Structure of Peptide ABC transporter permease:
Amino acid sequence: MIAFLTKRLMHAILVMLVISVIAFAIQDNLGDPIQQMVGQSVPESEREALRERLGLNDPFHVQYLRFAGNAIQGDFGYSYFYREPALDVIARHLPATLELVFGATLIIVLLSVPIGVYSAIKPRSPISRFFMGASIVGISVPVFLTAIVLIQIFSIGMKVTLFPEGTAWGGWLNATLSTQGGMPSFGRGQDLVHVFGYWDSNLFSAGGLRHLVLPSIALASIMLPLFIRLIRAEMLEVLQSEYVKFARAKGISPWRIYFVHALKNTMLPVITVGGVQIGTMVAYTILTETVFQWPGMGLMFLDAINRADIPLIVAYLMIVGVIFVITNTIVDLIYGLVNPTVKLTGKPA
């Protein structure tokens, strides 16, 4: 275990090193941070003095080595726009993103497992065919379009007039399909509960949860169809295995076979893919947070690019890289618990 964690720590350091080099290499293409920091009336001499004071005129290797030396001490630089440490800015926005990812993950787990298992147990039923067709549509629709549709239906409201109003059935269908809206679709609201430090949570109040619903559904729409199809495919394969046939021959309850014996082995590849995808969702929050103006790391990163806030961009990319490493480490630990024949050192059990 110690050797495994040490190896992953080295991976995290390597990831941060590579990301920081790449981020510094492209900084000249992101714009001029001085232009974003000062007004148009500031003379060129003062701009040049500020550039010199910030070290922006130094060669690439000098800037990078200075940053790396400070980063080893936990200093990732000061944000040009916020005029405070970049890590403090990220720490202030990180809880919003993590809560959004948590809400989306919860939706994915609660829906994908029962739908995927049912679709494998009864692959030819109309309900299973509907879910498979809907999953294809879900994979094809981009997250920003899903978010806009959710805002139109559940926040703004939608009046349906497709069916003839003069008939009882037409009026009933129009009324049933119409929505009144009213769901929050902008920001985190005012009903936040302070937990500790920079963490103000939406999870502990009814108003906060209402603000979290639509962004979480939009973010979950990216991965939900993938997991439904993955669980269905793995479950179909497991149900054809010899031990499942033997369990049926012994007269074990079908539901025990499905949800105890088969589902456990079905989840092994799902856990592997899920760890990568959960980390990916942190990056996907950029579009979701932009549409809903959710004040998380994704929206912060997009604003940092527009402002050419180099220290904040580099710090964000490095933190996301570390999140990927931590997520995959946790997944490997869970995988070892679910499947004891797998050793974390990579040697066969």
